[in-house]
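Mods, move this if it's the wrong board.
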Amino acid sequence: MGGTTAADGGGSRTLFRCIKTARYVVAVTVMVLIVVVISYAIKMVVRERSLLVKVAGSTVNVQPLPKTSSSDKNLSFSLTIRASNPSGFSKIYYTNITALLIGKINASLPATSSSFHMGHLPDLAVQPRTWMFASTVYRASIDKNNEMDSSYNFTSYLYKGYSIRNAVLRLNGTLSTEVYNHYNHSGTVIYCCSSIFVGDGDDNPAGTPDMPCREQHITGLSCD
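Not the wrong board. Structure tokens:
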């Protein structure tokens, strides 16, 4: 009788140990699953981020600046970019932005393609589900010593009062995202903005909608 009681006690302890071990295994498994799900969710949020960029009024406004001497020829280029972050979680940064204008000059036939570097735009840091503006004004001097340069043809053509339609604005910068203090750097991202009017903004029809830009991850001059 005593032997039977001892055996029953040993079996109960073994059963309790098995239950305890099973609970521990289940708890660890659940914890691992939670970590995996959270990590996957963060990766998906970061991966799906996309900054939406538009050119305000589809226009780069160009104005001649007052002369300080008879040979002085200067232009001002003004541009406003609207950036929108549709994500509900991630903050998006677009930094070290350079702007390049590419357009066809109709001063001669056939029209020739010329380009002009506008310089840097202010950095963008767009909170989730918000938008912000980045504006810049760039001054360009027209120097006859640079006649062989593509930018000379571009700026001198505009200085004469002409405008360039269907130009392309190419934005080149570094895109990165922040989710719960976790940063994901995507490297260089290019935005190509087509059908841009370059010239006196008063010559562009009022109410021209903002032109959306398409994102591409291929470096180089072309926005094809």
